[in-house]
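Help: why these numbers?

___
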Amino acid sequence: MVVVTVGYRLGVFGFFGRPGPAAFGPSDQRAAMVRVRRNVSAFGGDPGSVTVPGWLNGQSKASTSGSRVGPARSLLRGVFMRIGFSLPLFGKAAAEPGGIARYARAAEKEGAAGLWVGDRLLSPVDPVVSYPGTDTMPEEFALAQDPFAALAVAAAVTETAILGSSTINATQYQPANFARMLTTLDVASGGRLLPGLGIGWSPDEYAAVGVPMAERGKRLDDVLDLLEQWWTDDVVSHTGVGYTIAESHVRLKPVRKPPVHLAGFGEKALQRVARRADGWLPVYSVPEQVPADVLTSTLAKIRSGAEEAGRDPGALGVALRVNVAAGTKPEAIAEAVAKIVPVLEPDHTFVDLGYLTGSVDEHLDLTGRLLELIGRG
């Protein structure tokens, strides 16, 4: 049995571990423990094993017992400040042979808490709908690796980092194959998969996979229904949108039921998060495009909707993607992270480096620099 103790100090800058005046009252302690226990449960541990032995010199220590050191290490520090990064999935870095494995291995050793992928099938020359916020497609998308293959490679060369997606376009994949891929990734990684799913926005991609774009919403609901069966029942049968699964043995199960997070800002998408998801996938841009208070009010709306649906609003996780514009200085990125994380209090945060680097070496250098800057607080 492994006992892991994580200490933290909270105050004005406490989310980053910088000493500050003690400002962590009983209500804060209760909120923190809800998050800790949620993370323990998500990684297959016993949430009842988490205890707080008391206050020691202005610090609180939470202890938990479990069989995996990696997930336990992320409990409290993960709630307040551990940073992940995008894998070099797009752009010139994606074309480097062995680049995903080299980056994933080194980034975890540097202290990256998570390794994340996006999903881009096509980069049309003349897109029906341009990339949001532009009138074309970013040149980086002309070189794009498969997100599932990238996560599988990362799983093979790492031990503790969360392996997440923000966002995989779930409705562009055949559902049975999709369920099997996610299950395999969770098993391969030892239970570290965090599947962040969405419905995409590109008509060109939907035309390429032969799926009617107008059916995105109902197809995502169908995928969620299938995943629930696939991950819990040993015998699965399902009549979905355009496919049928005859009664079949499906005994390969994930290490623990992966916490499905959903993307979206539209009304229907937010309702789906509130009713069905384990967490939400907000996006914060650098320079800022959507103010922090919009994200916090949206999260409050989701949690209110979850409560109305009879769910525990405190159990809804948040996996924050920080999108960074080309040319942004590392100091500005660290400052933005320092601004948004204490406000939104995500369970997971990662910085998308896709527009900032042109090689795996640059990806690694920037990862190390940001970990240093963010670690300073």
